[in-house]
Amino acid sequence: QVELAESGGGLVQPGGSLRLSCVASGTVFGIFKMGWYRQGPGKQREAVADITEADHTNYADSVKGRFTISRDGAKNAVYLQMNSLQPDDTAVYYCNARQRAGIPPNEYWGQGTQVTVSS
To answer: Region 50-74: what's the mean pLDDT?
Structure first.
C-alpha cells in the first residue's frame, strides 16, 4: 500500500505562483509514474502533468509553459511549480502514483489540496 501526502495549496492572486509537493510512503517500490490531477468547481477531474521514473514529462495543453513538474526519487516526492496562475486554475489538486503490479498497475491518490486563484 502507498500513501500520498500533498501540501502547498492555498490562496493566490492571479499571476501569482504556488508550489505543490507530494510525498509517497509505505510500499513505494515499483512506482513508475507520479503526477497531478485537478478538479475544479462543477468540472470533471482532469490530468495536469505527470513524470516517469525516467524523468519523461507530460502536460495538459492548458498548463504548458506555466507549470513545471519535477521529482526527487530519493525522497519519493513529486512537485508541481505553478506560475502565472489564473482563476481557471482554481481546483482541488490531487497527487497520483502508479505502481507496477501486473495489468492494470496499482494506482493511488492523495487526499487533495485546494488551490484558489482570486483577487
So the answer is: 97
